[in-house]
Amino acid sequence: MSTLPFDTRLLLAPMAGVNDPVFRALCRRMGAGLTYTEMISSLALAYGNRKTQDMLRALPEDRPYAVQLFGSEPAVMAAQARALEAELGAGLALIDINMGCPARKVVSSGNGAALLKRSELACEIVAAVHAAVRVPVTVKMRLVSHADADTLAFASGLAESGAAALTIHGRTAEQYYRGAAHRSSVDTLVAGLSIPVIASGDVFSREDAREYRERGASAVMVARGARGNPWIFSGEEPDLAERVAVAREHVERLHAWEPRKLVWMRKHLAWYFKGSPVALRVRKAVQTAVSLEDYLALLESCAVGGE
């Protein structure tokens, strides 16, 4: 594990429409060992897409951080990884390659989880990116099938091609997020690989993470369990006042970073207050919140508690 820029603490998984720079910085402050950008298209970077380039931005307290790339063209992936390393310098912790996203628009273009069915191409991508950069290259994947041998064979090829670590989400692409993640997949990869295995899937508590570590995972990646709950990284149980304070910081800093992204706070606030006495009020009010003043007024009303 010494070659990787994090320890056994929890890691914040790449999540589309969730991992804005402020949220990532909050999770890092709470104790996340590493944070990841949203999943970024290598082709979009190659075309100089401004929206995609904005996804690479980070706050000073969230450096170094990981960039997750997706794509199915080895040369493009390698070129963009090389360019990222040159641009970000010491701010780049590692390049993570997505081979697990099950979204139809991603899979239909041959990216993400589609690569699970193209082992030779997947290995070519890893080898090309590994040869192009000095930082570690990792892969996030899903189960190839419900047969452990299939997943281990695919993962072994990636390790031989230069992957420094693998993150396994214990569901097939066809499952999306249905059913429970198969945690035994971690056991299989830990026993069969010589590189670190990072566990992912259904991590909603410190106990979930502890079970994965007991299975031998070198680190544990948190996705949905971190939405509205950066405290999962610290192990704290926030009261309503703490939730309001952190949500207010998130709103204010996100507005200062990029006012156009303020609309993201609609879902963030619903997550922050899920299960709290003000949850219903928040879910209703965020639907019409537009300005910074709207969000701050809502949070002020939450501070007094109750429905």
Tally of strands = 8
- Report the CATH topology name of the largest domain: TIM Barrel
Overall outline: globular
CATH class category label of the largest domain = Alpha Beta
Order of helices and strands: EHEHHEHEHHEHEHEHEHHHH
The proportion of strand residues reads: 15-25%
User: How many helical elements?
Assistant: 13
Q: Largest sheet, described in full?
A: 8 strands, parallel, barrel
Low-confidence stretches: none
Mean pLDDT reading: 94
What spatial order of strands do you see in the largest sheet?
1-2-3-4-5-6-7-8
For this entry, give a set of tags:
eight-stranded parallel beta barrel; 307 residues; single chain; alpha/beta; 8 strands; 2 domains; TIM Barrel
Molecular structure report:
The protein is α/β, with parallel strands linked by helices. It folds into two domains: about 10-235, Aldolase class I (TIM Barrel), CATH 3.20.20.70; about 240-305. Helix content is about 40%, strand content about 15%. It is built from 13 helices and eight strands. The protein has helices at about 20-30, 40-45, 50-55, 75-90, 105, 120-130, 150-160, 185-190, 205-215, 240-255, 265-270, 280-285, 290-305, and strands at about 10, 35-40, 65-70, 90-100, 135-145, 165-170, 195-200, 220. Strands 1-2-3-4-5-6-7-8 form an eight-stranded parallel β-barrel, surrounded by six helices. Strand 1 (about 10), helix 1 (about 20-30) and strand 2 (about 35-40) form a beta-alpha-beta unit. Helix 6 (about 120-130) runs parallel beside helix 7 (about 150-160). The longest helix has 18 residues, at about 240-255.
